[in-house]
Amino acid sequence: MPGVLPEGEPVPRDGALPAAARRAVGARGFGVYVHVPFCASRCGYCDFNTYTAAELGGGAGRETYADTVLAELALAGRVLGDTPPPRVDTVFVGGGTPTLLPADDLARILDGIDRTWGLAPDAEVTTEANPETVTPESLKALRAAGYTRISLGMQSAAPGVLAILDRQHSAGRATAAALEARDAGFDHVNLDLIYGTPGESAEDFAASLAQVVAAGVDHVSAYALIVEDGTRLAARMRRGELPYPSDDVAADRYLAAEAALAAAGFSWYEVSNWARSEAARCRHNLLYWTGDDWWGLGPGAHSHVGGVRWWNVKHPTAYAQRLAAGESPGLARELLTPDEAHMEDVMLRLRLAAGLPLSGLDEAGRVGAERARADGLLDADAYAAGRAVLTLRGRLLADAVVRDLLP
């Protein structure tokens, strides 16, 4: 089941932000995240804030969801006001399974964002999708509505691995959907992979990578399986039905991904993300990783504007009730201190191929960076040029390097 939200100070009922935060809007990139909390079934490894029809019971459902999001968007427009109006550089619709909503509803949400703040002329507009929930017709409708990028949850090409993960699509459906998205005119197509699932062989993962490359996508995300408390997969492992993931196997899979994707013309730009070109990089995720602003719409969605971070109530029913009463769905918020902002900046930027400037580290951090360079975890040439950039081995040990830079 979904995890627990952090604690913080209450969000004002009208959602008002401190004046300093409002004044900062427009000074850096601005994105919009839209959370769609519905899934046809729950995958065994998932602890995201998502709900099946059975889990929702008589709660808020899909039929009125777009209208509820538009109500929050209207509130957001009032909170930020007209001066200075942010231009939306990126939109990302995630979930859950956004494509369980009709394409017309996703189009209405995007139109609402455009009417509220205005989409930049070159805005990147992404939706996530499960492969079994899209068709050539729905993909064409999404593209016509203004969506430029689609991210498909493939996870694996091996039927046995998909079964362990409780995925509903067939082994070949994800790559077929990727080809359909290209035919529909999407500028950019991503496939997501999960590696390290119990029972997955090296050959299984190699076959998954080969299918991704053959599908002609221009972006790949690959993540090690994380077993979260409260999930069906965690329960199966506690009962001894499945072995726990192996760190050594995960490292081997990561090296295999880097080798196969690099040979196919992809370059890593974030530890878990590869793109065929700079234009194919996910600009919305880069907005997160570089500390820009975004407004999160939907239950459980997080936002970050002008150094203030807040998060909405999690359940769709509570979310809809607050908005129906004319109140902000925000549950709590926090104002990041300079030290907290610095720590997050180091943690996130170090994961990028661009790295981070050594000049931004304190003396202890620079000592740690020198130690990481001597251990082969930071690139020597980049270090000489004044930047901390992970080597391939450093990517495998990124968390340890962060600890070196933040002693």
Automatic annotation (TrEMBL):
Coiled coil: none annotated. Residues 24-267 form the Radical SAM core domain. NCBIfam families: hemN_rel (TIGR00539). CDD domains: Radical_SAM. InterPro entries: Aldolase_TIM, Coproporphyrinogen-III_oxidase, Elp3/MiaA/NifB-like_rSAM, HemW-like, rSAM, rSAM_sf. It comes from the Bacteria. It holds the Pfam family Radical_SAM. It is found in: Cytoplasm. Keywords: 4Fe-4S, Chaperone, Cytoplasm, Heme, Iron, Iron-sulfur, Metal-binding, S-adenosyl-L-methionine. Probably acts as a heme chaperone, transferring heme to an unknown acceptor. Binds one molecule of heme per monomer, possibly covalently. Binds 1 [4Fe-4S] cluster. The cluster is coordinated with 3 cysteines and an exchangeable S-adenosyl-L-methionine. This is Heme chaperone HemW. PROSITE patterns: RADICAL_SAM (PS51918). Belongs to the anaerobic coproporphyrinogen-III oxidase family. HemW subfamily.
